[in-house]
Amino acid sequence: MKKVSIIIPVYRAEQFIAATIQSVLEQTHQNFEVLIVDDGSPDRSIEICQQFKDSRIKIFRQKNRGLSGARNTGIRHAQGEYLAFLDPDDLWLPEKLEKHVQHLNNSPDVGVSFSRSGFINEEGESLGIYQMPMLKNITPQYVICRNPIGNGSAGVFRKEVFEAIKYQDNIHGYVEDFYFDERFRVSQDVECWLRIVFQTSWQLEGIPEALTLYRVNSQGLSSSWQKKLESVEMILEKTHSYAPEFIDKWKKPVKAYYLRYVARRAVSARDGATAVQLFHRAITTHWRILLEEPMRTILTGGAAYLLSFLPQTVYKQLEAIALKLTGANQQRRILQEQSS
Hints:
Oligomer: single chain
Largest sheet: 9 strands, mixed
Structural class: alpha/beta
CATH class of the largest domain: Alpha Beta
CATH topology of the largest domain: Spore Coat Polysaccharide Biosynthesis Protein SpsA, Chain A
Order of helices and strands: EHEHEHEEHEEHEHEEHEHHHHHHH
Number of strands: 11
Shape: globular
CATH architecture of the largest domain: Alpha-Beta Complex
CATH superfamily of the largest domain: Spore Coat Polysaccharide Biosynthesis Protein SpsA, Chain A
């Protein structure tokens, strides 16, 4: 039975970390180790972690190096054949590891197995909607425009995948192996997935179930959209260094998709004026986004305009109806794909 190394970066997570660890301990696949990386957390997070008396849990401490730095530390210490990352405010359903291990065992060409994710609020209650990426035939342009894995807690990886993309650098005064690029404080996942699809022969493939619960919190909703757009410039620049023809072809579409994404984030943060501005920039950057993904693009623009012009009470009522319909359709699709 394959051993899974579960890497949990911890920084200011005292509100959620206990539930996150408990969701790991309740996994039906029990051959795992939990590598908790204290990334210089100033709160009680690690004190809470230490209350779990399980020999499979190991705690590593370091000065703050960000999410990428914490994950890199975890990878360096990992003993499992498979690796999984779990952000300290997210949760896993009990059968998550079991199904990913089975998927990887049965799919020798797949290096990254990911699931869909259900959204939950700060109290852990389901919002009834899901991240619904494409599951197969993942192309580089799909990775850079839409991030099929969706979030850092959704994927399970063969350890060989990270061995294939590692590089050495001297960032902190000594030479180390790096896997995630620690220059990235935003969008580090996409940058890493791109190196996997360009520099290795491993495939990315998803399973239809929503096995990860992705927590939407107020801090995340209000995070700077400008930082997100700056990160895409960094991704384009780095990827251009090893795939220049690809970036020359996809640069404008990539920027448009990111602009549409941050427009949706602005809608969620109830900032209608910013959402409209970002949506306009997306269309003028690459108008074909209307043809490539008409439904998602029109819904984003429609939500931005309605938020700007309608009274908040009316908008909230319309939003609730739209989310309910969307969630019901997503659930039907998940069930259909599971049965097939």
